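User: Need the bound-state model for adenosine monophosphate:
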Amino acid sequence: MKILVLNAGSSSHKSCLFDLTEGHSEAPEPLWRASLDWTHQEGSVELSASGSGESVQQVLPITDKAAGLEAMVKTLVEGPTQVLSSLGEIEAVGHRVVHGGRDYVDSVRVTEEVKAAIQQLIPLAPAHNPANLQGIEAMERILGDVPQVAMFDTAFHARMPKAAALYPGPYSWVEQGIRRYGFHGISHQYVAQRAADLMGRDLADLKLLTCHLGNGCSLAAVKGGISVDTTMGFTPLEGLMMGSRSGSVDPGILIYLMRQEGYSADQLDTLLNKESGLKGISGLSNDMRGIAEAMEQGNARAKLAVDMFIHRLHREMGAMIASLGGLDAVVFTAGIGENSPLLWQRASAPFEFLGLRLKKDLARAKDDQDIAAADSGVSVLVIHTQEEWAIAQACLGHRYSF
Ligand code: AMP
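Assistant: Bound-state model below.
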């Protein structure tokens, strides 16, 4: 079954085409992958696509996102990356949707009602839900009435116990839906299951700390396959220090800035989401690789940014381990988590008292790997997240409704 997956972010759209049948135990290589990057330069989009063993990269003078998506999808049937003879071969489209609110706790077939719900949730995920909706509507225009499935980043955390999910504000917040939803759920769920498979254990018997450390960062405490706690909350701003997001700060700072300096909601939004975190502290960028290099060269603010990132990571890892009440494995995933031996070492160091020990020679690898020493009491796994494949599998699960 040919399934197109769209993973739309605030500044990029990634897409993959899978040909799936039942019974894949590991993520297969997609037939085609493409991405659109809107940050390339004003008034243009960078399109990269690969398929049929060929790849192309081009800058297109496109400002309209729908036109960009159409150009991307056309590379499936035209030019060197062609893998299909017609777009009619696509049997389903799967989407990552960031916020599913209280009502969407599993993947769903997209209907008018589902689209309206994604629209209504825009205030809770203003950088993401509009792009997700745009992707769904663009596919309706380009592919006609092909079945579409939405998989929500919040869904995996929907079974968090109330004590972890609610904020200690007034009780009216509970009724208003002001609660902790958690994000990166597709990734946390995938890597938790993959960890169990690699360990040869049943997920239902494991206590796992999954660390999704990319430009956005979050941890999840996965007990018996259920997310019982996570670091992101009502929005993806809570928790760890991130690329350009502050993570948790004293809300009193916001009251102070509003009263003393006249900050508006929009200004605070920009400050906390775009000008904080690694970028804000280092003064360089949101890119951990560049910041780590600057640190090596003696840049004091880069060092401070990395030290703060690690300190906050330790603090939140400790909190997740307490929520788990034990620890069978730590899993590192996403851009920083999959690629940085320095991060693995520094993140793991304080947990030696739990018997966690890493191998001596650590190096990045293309494959998933166990980086714990032979005598470690806790497994430590580096797993490449496969959100697109997880979404394609969700589509496969809905095929009888198509
Ligand atoms: P993601 O959002 O998952 O694409 O992750 C992006 C983050 O991963 C950026 O901060 C990158 O600098 C970081 N990253 C990618 N490769 C490496 C690497 N080899 N070492 C450290 N950080 C990396």
